[in-house]
Write a structure and sequence with these properties.
Largest sheet: 6 strands, parallel
Structural class: alpha/beta
Mean pLDDT: 93
Low-confidence stretches: none
Number of helices: 10
Number of domains: 2
Strand content: 15-25%
CATH superfamily of the largest domain: TPP-binding domain
Strand order of the largest sheet: 3-2-1-7-8-9
Bound molecules: ligand BV8, zinc ion
Order of helices and strands: HEHHHHHEHEEEEHEHEEH
CATH class of the largest domain: Alpha Beta
CATH topology of the largest domain: Rossmann fold
CATH architecture of the largest domain: 3-Layer(aba) Sandwich
Number of strands: 9
Length: 247
Amino acid sequence: MISPSLEHALSSARHCAVLTGAGVSAESGVPTFRSAGGLWKNHNPQELATPEAFDADPALVWSWYSWRRRTVRDVNPNPGHYALAEAAALFPRLTLITQNVDDLHQRAGSSGVIELHGSIERCRCSVCDAPYHGDNAPPTDDVQYCRCGGAIRPGVVWFGESLPMAALDAAQQAAGECDLFLSVGTSAIVYPAAMLPMIARQAGAYTVEINTAPSALAHEMDECITGPSGVVLPVLLETLRRLRGSA
Ligand code: BV8
Ligand code: ZN
């Protein structure tokens, strides 16, 4: 499973950058964004995850996110999340960039996670941007309203919205500086996140995809490992421990 080229990269990399997508959380029981049957009640996530959908029907979109928040709170990180958290101590530097809006990386012990698409656990007023502190209340299906009258929205980046500038800058910088780039559990369809593996490749990093099926970028990667991230990442961690001494 671990090729000689990847062994070399694992033993010599000064900076490893990792981009994760919904596939990493799939083994925890969080449905992926584009899995068959979509995420919820046959609604197309692409259509629900937009400002227009929220403006048109805040109750529908809010209840979708409440369902997702309940799902995330009911599951646990899987071995893939834990392997990435432990690998951080074995590289001189590891930058973890996620497209996921769950908090499973953080709950597995990863710190400094770059959340490109925000977090389902952080909500804010859709009008005045005030943070909504009812987050740790049980996710209710009823739309909540701010003192200013604005409807409370999930703190995620919707399609058609710009990514948080600081997060995107940090992710692009890490991709441009790393010497090993792992793209894990993402279909590599959503931009600008899907630019990151290409930035890494152009900067000379060894690029590896870990996925159960080839992504849109598989043909551009130096190496593709086909398998569930919850199986492949622990093997990669064991190899790292053997090559660099266990942390
Ligand atoms: C923006 C938060 C400026 C919400 C999400 C350039 C070209 C083309 C289009 C665009 C472009 N630039 C902008 C766009 C438009 C759009 C876009 O990219 N559209 C796509 C569909 C073509 N991008 C945007 O709108 C972005 N904004 O660029 O602002 C702008 C504005 C307007 C117009 C132009 C520019 C904002 C994008 C952010 C959207 N928000 N999430 C929420 O979660 O509700 S994205 C959403 O998709 C999730 O975050 C998800 O993580 C992400 C990516 O999906 P994946 O994570 O890859 O999940 P997916 O289900 O697709 O795939 C799962 C993968 O896992 C599969 O490959 C599967 O094989 C694999 N897998 C499954 N099980 C396992 C596994 N792998 C390993 N192990 C397993 N066990
Ligand atoms: Zn407000």
